[in-house]
Amino acid sequence: MKRMMKSLLTLVAVLALATPAVAGKKDPLAAWKPKFDPSGAKYKYILSNVSHPAIEGVAVGYRIRDKVWEKSGGRLYVDFRPLSQLGGEKDVISKLKLGAVQGMLCSSVAAANVADKLGIVNLPYVVDTFDKLDTFRNTPELWEPFANSAQRSGILVADITGYGTYGWASNIPVKTLADAKKVNFRIAQAPVNKDSYKAWGLKFTVMPWPDVPQALQTGVIDGLDHTPTVCNITKKFEIAKNFTQLDYAQGLFIHLMNKRWFNKLPKDLQTILMDTIAEESAVARDLTRKQQNEQIAKAKANGVQFYTLSADETALLIKKTQPVYESWGKKIGPGYLKKVQTTLK
Questions:
Q1: pLDDT one digit per residue (tens) for the chain, 345 residues
Q2: CB atoms within 10 A of CB 152
Q3: Other CB atoms within 10 A of residue 320 CB
Q4: On the chain, which terminus has fewer CB atoms closer than 10 Å, C or N?
């Protein structure tokens, strides 16, 4: 009995010592907590995202939350969950289809797993600039087929925000395609990306985002296919000190929504939610332009070197992408792909 009491007291002492460490852990989302009590809301919209709200295209979730709460008089609460709180994107897509999660800011690289047509925004040199993105979003004959493409899976496309333009962060300077062939680039778990890198003849490793920091540090990869905003905010530039501005695609978060849940929402709340998403997404797209310029300036000030390929080498990349346009054109719809390319040329 004495031994049992001694063991119990020891366990209590250990837990007492451990508790302050847990309690003292900083909440990375403390600054974004709501300034209202959401417990009285009659309706809840759980909205997921894998990234950090320091990125403007992610922070939009909190701005939508606050505006919808105000406009609905506290009837609808947008419960925004960034930083992979609800799991990785493939898991959340499954939950979204089932209705366990009602909304998702899905990365454009993963969105092609929901509907082939959503892959159009990730094709190289199609929707590749901020201006083209605005034209794409604001031209009904381009936007509506895109927005309606996932309805067979029970998903609506509400809007889009972004996280900048894609290029290469690398441990060595990449000024030419010959330089690029020396690099093992990490790419997302996305079908369009894999096809593009195969067509370009470059070495790549498909890897989940959480595995990237250690892989960069240990040399498993020595390059990264991503945007300067994300690379700087998530401190990838502390290891990969070079960035090649390919600007071949816009990094986007596509706002997906469970159609069945939305259809059950009262009509006035449907209007409030969709209008707010459209308004705040447009603001976020403007802020993303500014944020990219700011993050590039900060990265340069910290010693990151920026490069661009020559016009001839960019043209060669586009030429090498032709088989990808052909294969994905069949999935997306060749007429639709041609219309997007022609309109945005």
A1: 445 444 444 443 333 333 343 345 688 899 999 999 999 999 999 999 999 999 999 999 999 999 999 999 999 999 999 999 999 898 999 999 999 999 999 999 899 989 999 999 999 999 999 999 999 999 999 999 999 999 999 999 999 999 999 999 999 999 999 999 999 999 988 899 999 999 999 999 999 888 899 999 999 999 999 999 999 999 999 999 999 999 999 999 999 999 999 999 999 999 999 999 999 999 999 999 999 999 999 999 999 999 999 999 999 999 999 999 999 999 999 999 999 999 999
A2: 8
A3: 17
A4: N
Supply 66's token pair: 């606050």
CA 188 to CA 107: how far, in whole Å? 10
- How far apart, in Å, are the Cα atoms of 96 and each of 77, 104, 255, 296? 17, 7, 12, 34
Read off the tokens for 156: 């609506």
Instruction: Please give the Cα distance from 62 to 53 (Å, whole number).
Output: 8
Are 197 and 236 in contact by the 8 Å Cβ rule? The answer is no
What domains are defined for the chain? 40-163+251-300 (3.40.190.170), 167-248+301-338 (3.40.190.170)
177 closest CA partner among 312, 322, 306, 304: 312
Q: Cβ contacts of residue 153 below 8 Å, gap of 6+? A: 97, 114, 115
Residues β-bridged to residue 157: 256
Residue where the block lists tokens 């899905």: 106
